[in-house]
Amino acid sequence: MLPGKVGTDAYLSPVLDIDGVSVDRLMRDFGSPLFVFSEQKIHSNIQSAKRAFSTRYPKVQFAWSYKTNYLDGVCKIFHEEGSWAEVVSGFELEKALQNGVDGSHILFNGPSKTKEDLQKAVRLGVYIHIDNLDELYLLSEVADEESERPKVAVRVNLDAGLSQQWDRFGFNYENGQAWDTLSKIVEMGKLDLKGIHCHIGTFILSTKAYAVAAEKMARLALEVFQKLRVRLEYIDLGGGFASHNTLKASYLGGPDVAPSFDDYAEAVASAIYKVPFKTSELPMLILETGRALIDDAGYLLSTVLSNKRSATGRRYTVIDAGVNLLFTSFWYDHKISPAQPYSKYFEDVTLFGPLCMNIDMIREFVCLPLLNRGDHLVIHNVGAYNVTQWMQFITLRPNVIMVKRDGDCSILHEAETLSDIKRKECL
Ligand SMILES: *Cc1c(COP(=O)(O)O)cnc(C)c1O
């Protein structure tokens, strides 16, 4: 169907249920606003990502990026599907351990590891991804005090041809810092060098960038073998695959521009095969994909509070979910669907949240059927980063639930109450 002024009808069909469970019922039972996750969708996302990579490359391992969504009920699905944990703080490390992940299946990234974090990681056999030289020296101290040898990888940043090159994390490839650090680690002789890691950015729409990164990393791994005589267990290409959201200022919608897992996998695998490893000596390929695996499994259901006219006559609609719950509305134009049948009358509206703050705008321009107080909306693709970056501000945070594969619903995170907030206060 050709899109008309307001897109295709499919885009605007009312969303009456999530995985067969009625939106009205969900909101009646669990309140509004309400975050809803689809268990089915999480499984199918990780399964198709695994299939895309493992049909093209012999040794593939996914590691779930905790900061993308560290609700236990979400993490456990990824672990059930065989994903390791990728953590970036002592808090996330502890959360992964409490989810039953073995230390030897945890990758510890990030620029802020404390000495205590490093001690714990060493004792548990966690893979420590070194970000900077101060961290390397601290780890060397820890190694002297501990009986286990630390397992490490070096975080590398590199030019993958992207207009914004991330060089804040890790050691640069092109200027030789990464190589110097790798040689230093081998020379020190105290740490077990297991891999190299990079994470070129986030929401990367270019598969070419992954091809460049994969080839540079594979060449580096081969060089480590040839010159330093260390065979690396793995190359970790981080995360960054785009989800189906639409970036602000993007002409085409997210689903039309985001490469598929097959596209990314084809680019990565063919790039690694350009580097002359013996097949039996190919390093394991680790992927820390976050948003692309969870974004479209998450919905935010919301209720219309009021309508009004701006000074210039534009329709303003105020809903009960604000930017404190939906951080990603600062950079995405989230797809919004009405959750009940609607009239044929559409109007461009500005959609505001409930906060008494001028910046609380969910969509600046969106064409929607006329909605009345009490009507419901479904905001799509909210599964990544919102339930970790959300903030208690002015309102209390709502329930987060999961619609399970058998149609049952369970709470993943209970709505906040006033006493939750006051419990931490002291007079
Ligand atoms: C945030 C992060 C990820 C996940 O990134 P996405 O863009 O959500 O895929 C993976 N690895 C590291 C090191 C990260 O910091």
Mean pLDDT: 96
Largest sheet: 9 strands, mixed
Bound ions, cofactors and other small molecules, one mention each: pyridoxal-5'-phosphate
DSSP summary, beta strand count? 20
Q: What proportion of the residues form beta strands (DSSP E)? A: 15-25%
Distance N to C terminus: 62 Å
CATH superfamily heading of the largest domain: Alanine racemase
Q: Supply Rg.
A: 23 Å
Shape: globular
| Assembly type | single chain
Q: How many separate structural domains?
A: 2
Helix/strand/pairing class, anyone? alpha/beta
CATH class of the largest domain: Alpha Beta
- Low-pLDDT parts are none
Please tell me the CATH architecture of the largest domain by its name.
Alpha-Beta Barrel
How helical, in percent, are the residues? 25-40%
Instruction: Determine the number of helices (DSSP H or I, runs of at least 4 residues).
Output: 14
If you consult CATH, what is the topology of the largest domain? TIM Barrel
